């Protein structure tokens, strides 16, 4: 597998969010194929960066290809990848677990169904051992590894999940018909062939 170059993340956030579908993500060798993402930028009212730079969202304005990790509801961590325009990042919503599944089960609970290990951003971080200590870390260096996996795929595009502002924007991307999504795309979703 070929690691993604730093230049990959310098693209527009929506392009990166779409192109991350089918990429293999691991943290210390534990992870799998990214099957669902969401795009956010500083002009987006739903984005943490919308009001400008703060102590919490500082990583979103830092170097591209780095992690922005935040805690939601005081319980769950969420992993975002910083992109080209300052204040833009891609939220990793779901992965297909492939590497270190036993480790993921230990972290998430051995009785969890395989399909629920990494279906949702909080579950992804819990399964991969991601917390605020990785905020600002480069995703092109250990413990992270992002590499090409699926050569071609069909990507579904739809509205984002769990937000109230700018909820109608088509900024959620997913591997079409994947059983590993956090939530299926509506039947009237937009599907585009992408390599």
Q: Characterize the biggest β-sheet.
A: 9 strands, antiparallel
Helical segment count: 3
Beta-strand segment tally: 9
Instruction: Report the radius of gyration as a whole number of Å.
Output: 15 Å
Average pLDDT for all residues: 90
User: Quaternary status of these chains?
Assistant: single chain
The residue fraction in helices comes out at 10-25%
- The helix/strand order is HEEEEEHHEEEE
Provide a descriptive summary of the structure in words:
The protein has 195 residues and is mainly β. Helix content is 12%, strand content 31%. It contains three helices and nine strands, in the order H-E-E-E-E-E-H-H-E-E-E-E. Strands 1, 2, 3, 4, 5, 6, 7, 8 and 9 form a nine-stranded antiparallel beta sheet that branches. Strand 3 and strand 4 form a beta hairpin. Helix 2 crosses helix 3.
In short:
The protein contains three helices and nine strands, in the order H-E-E-E-E-E-H-H-E-E-E-E.
List the helices and strands and how they pair.
Layout lengths: L12 H7 L3 E5 L2 E11 L26 E6 L3 E7 L6 E11 L1 H8 L12 H8 L15 E5 L4 E6 L13 E4 L14 E5 L1
Antiparallel strand pairs: 1-2, 1-6, 2-5, 2-8, 3-4, 4-5, 7-8, 7-9
Helix pairs in contact: 2-3
